[in-house]
Amino acid sequence: xxxxxxxxxxxxxxxxxxxxxxxxxxxxxxxxxxxxxxxxxxxxxxxxxxxxxxxxxxxxxxxxxxxxxxxxxxxxxxxxxxxxxxxxxxxxxxxxxxxxxxxxxxxxxxxxxxxxxxxxxxxxxxxxxxxxxxxxxxxxxxxxxxxxxxxxxxxxxxxxxxxxxxxxxxxxxxxxxxxxxxxxxxxxxxxxxxxxxxxxxxxxxxxxxxxxxxxxxxxxxxxxxxxxxxxxxxxxxxxxxxxxxxxxxxxxxxxxxxxxxxxxxxxxxxxxxxxxxxxxxxxxxxxxxxxxxxxxxxxxxxxxxxxxxxxxxxxxxxxxxxxxxxxxxxxxxxxxxxxxxxxxxxxxxxxxxxxxxxxxxxxxxxxxxxxxxxxxxxxxxxxxxxxxxxxxxxxxxxxxxxxxxxxxxxxxxxxxxxxxxxxxxxxxxxxxxxxxxxxxxxxxxxxx
Amino acid sequence: xxxxxxxxxxxxxxxxxxxxxxxxxxxxxxxxxxxxxxxxxxxxxxxxxxxxxxxxxxxxxxxxxxxxxxxxxxxxxxxxxxxxxxxxxxxxxxxxxxxxxxxxxxxxxxxxxxxxxxxxxxxxxxxxxxxxxxxxxxxxxxxxxxxxxxxxxxxxxxxxxxxxxxxxxxxxxxxxxxxxxxxxxxxxxxxxxxxxxxxxxxxxxxxxxxxxxxxxxxxxxxxxxxxxxxxxxxxxxxxxxxxxxxxxxxxxxxxxxxxxxxxxxxxxxxxxxxxxxxxxxxxxxxxxxxxxxxxxxxxxxxxxxxxx
Lengths: 448, 308
Description:
The complex is a heterodimer.
Chain A: H1 2-20, E1 30-35, H2 43-59, E2 63-68, H3 74-83, E3 89-93, H4 94-102, H5 110-116, H6 124-127, E4 140-152, H7 153-158, H8 170-184, E5 187-190, H9 197-207, E6 214-217, E7 220-223, H10 228-242, H11 255-263, E8 267-273, H12 276-284, E9 291-295, E10 305-314, H13 320-339, H14 341-353, H15 368-377, H16 390-395, E11 401-402, H17 409-425, H18 431-447
Parallel strand pairs in A: 1-2, 5-8, 10-11
Antiparallel strand pairs in A: 3-10, 4-8, 4-9, 4-10, 6-7
Helix pairs in contact in A: 2-14, 9-10, 9-17, 13-14, 17-18
Chain B: H1 3-10, H2 15-20, H3 23-51, E1 54-56, E2 61-63, H4 67-74, H5 77-96, H6 98-109, H7 114-126, H8 129-139, H9 147-154, H10 169-194, H11 198-206, H12 211-239, H13 243-249, H14 260-270, H15 277-302
Helix pairs in contact in B: 4-15, 5-10, 5-12, 5-14, 6-10, 7-10, 8-13, 10-12, 10-13, 12-15, 14-15
């Protein structure tokens, strides 16, 4: 009997001990958990990060940086936030920043940015993405991109095309896609279609033809998905798919999948953010020599290039000491390399030493002058093939940028995924009917 | 039961007798299981019910009555998801259900290398489902170089779109799901076949029955309890299909493979950053209720035919 009690007590103790083991002690330093890279990043990226972590900790002995693997994903964000497993510092795209700050899921950093003294250095259009209705700032814009046309130089050559003269009109894109497809059997052109990326790309394609899917008039937002730009974009995809058969055979590709296919040499051209080069090389094993980038063609009076970007933000659920450390980290890791010559050079040097991309095409988050100055500072370290991206650098400042739609962005993108998929998998898809239906559903979402 | 045991039972039970009888140590032994089960199994179920009446972002929440249920029922994608799920269940029933029975009967007739065939049949169950799906993506590759399309090419059939077409996407998913699940069922049927008394076959043989009559008049009736249970388990499983549409097609093309569970996932995770957990749990609850009613009715209906 006695031994039974002893065993029972031991079992109960073991349970309690196991539960208690979930919490751990500290080291006396302020621990700061910061986002590093998405899953799949290569070891060299982590080497570069470790070097930067050591540099920061040397300058700030009271702070212990803990890198956390992180990829922005709508699905897991709210759960991670509620569970407290989110890094203290992480990045989110512009499109989601507004929703997050309205939900109270981001920390107010107005005073901190003011204290650092660069509030008025930001590009005002970009600063708007992190400004709440109360006029306060909820994050540090750190990087912006414009949609670009990425192409595979090897496939261009295989199809007898000159990789140094990428297409400049949609008709040329179509013609080149057909040639690539016929010569190589690969997809000449392809667009993303799943997990909200289909909507994202359709909005970009629509904007490039002068259409926009939302109109804001004062307090009212009207869904205008069924506009001539969107119709033209879908008819274009329809023709490439059903008349030219130049889109390959996989019509269910998201951001990760299309990058994978492109890096593997299975896609001739696709549109995506201009900054995707870093991920293509670091996470998807792209051979830099086969990469080419140019601007996406813009046609029509109101044609614009869709842009976006991301902001570095602080989790709302951390204490003051961690918060102060978080702001220091953001300033050091993300901002100073844009503002300070020494920091810019040191950052570039560290990245180059680990074989990471330096000089990937981005848009300025700060004013044009600071941006150009910044590129001069790192000119010696730039290791991305700039001459293979000249189409983009030559054309991008001629184009008019436009931000993503503001209201219920991701939900509407999800609706549009289906529309793009319908056009690509049903030859007789009724584009007008699909868009009218999408408009109704989007308006219902906007009206709440 | 022995006499002293009966005597002990008849005594009045008080907290003291409970304690002396080792009640406390029993409870302590049970505690880990109760805590884990309560925390991770029943807790979430209760929370699901509560959340289905709330608007919540997991940090702040307030009650909204039946709003979530109304929103879900008004969602234009819901009928598509329900029909798709029924379609999947139907296809799985037609192709996936009889196959394991047939294979089990055939395998039980094999004289040699029975273990080899069992292992072969069970192998897909051992492969992690996500790995299996990624593998099958190569099989379903719609280009002429895809594994299935290459095989079709040998017999002069043109490449098929498989997952890339609204009409063929769902049957393709069923094909993989059948392959993945058949092994488990086969093992259960094989075990059940062992319990069929051999003298029944002998008697049937004496009566002049051939192999098919033996299967029809002896094997199947003897297996019927197992078959009934397997049927309801399959219906419950197919009504909750998620993995295949999620990994193969993300519900596409054009919602052709959106299932009820995938829709629940979308409510909770895909579309909105706050996570529409209220609507997701409301639909989960409705699905659970429908399946519970279905199971109840099914067992009432089949009680008459069941041997137990």
